[in-house]
Amino acid sequence: MAPKKKKTVEYEFPHPMDNESLVGHADVLKSFMDAWNNRDIHPIHPVWMLAGPRGIGKSTLAYKIAKMVYGNVGDFFIVDLDRNLDKDGKVKADAKSISVATARAMIDKMQMSSMSGDWRVVLIDSVDELSTSASNAILKLLEEPPAKTLFLLIVHQLSSVLPTVRSRARVEKMRPLTISQLRELCFKFLPEEDVSTETLKLANGSFGKIANLKSSGGDEVYEALIEHLNNPRGDASDAMNLAKKIAASPELYPILLDAIAHFGLADLYPVATRVIADINRVNLEPEISIFKIIMDIRKCL
Q1: 215 pLDDT band (50/70/90 cuts)?
Q2: Exposed end of the chain (fewer CB within 10 Å): N or C?
C-alpha cells in the first residue's frame, strides 16, 4: 500500500527565545531558582549544563533563565549556529559546527562590555556543535569565570562534551517529556491537528521531533510503513514506494530505526544504523538501501 501524500501545511513554531510555553522540567527550574535566590548566602555555580535529548525544551528553559538573570539590563551573549562567524568575522551560513572565531568574538565582546554590576549571561546552544578549537577557547573562559557571569550550556549528548568542559559545570540532566506533556504542547502549537498516540510514542518524549514529523509528513509515512509491515500481503512494489518516499526526505531515515524498535528487532538495529550512515558516507543509492532495510524487517517478522 502506497503511503498517503505528504501534507503541504506549514507550521510555525516560536524560537526558544520567544517561547513562553515551558512544559515540564519544573525540577530543574526549581533547582536553579533555589540556587539563584540564595546566591547571597551560597555563591551560585557559574556554569550550568542543561543536558538531555533534542527537542525536549532545554533551549526554552535556558532562555527563560537567561532573561530572568540579566533582566534586559545586563549583557546577554549567545553562541549558536545562527550567529556563526567565519575567520573574517562574517556570518557563516550552513555551517555544521560553531567556529572558534565565533567563540573568540563572544569572549572579545565580554571583555569590552561594561561592568556596571549587573549580571551577564552566556548561552551556548549547543556545546555538541562547538568545534574542538571553539571548545578549547570556551574552556579557558570557564576555568576562571568572570564575576557575576552565568554560563548556560545546552548539551544534547553528554558523551560528546570534552571531560574538561563537563568538569567545570553543574550538570542538570533533563528528562524526555511525558505523553501528557507532549499532548499539552500539541494543543498549544498544533491546535488543528489530530496527533495520534502512535506519533506521540514515536517522538520519544521530544516535541521537537513531533514538530519535524508534522512538518515533513513523517508521521503519515511512519504509519504507512507500520501498516505495510503488518500486512502479510504487502509486496516489493509497496516497499519500494515507501522507500522512495523516505529517500526523498533524509530527515525521515530515523523512522526506519523506530520501526525496528517497534517490532523489537534488536539484532537488526545495528545493521540498519550502519546502512543509514553509509547512505551519506559512501553515496549509496538511498532508495535501494532503504528498500533493503524494509525488506529485511519483513523477513524478520
Answers
A1: confident
A2: C
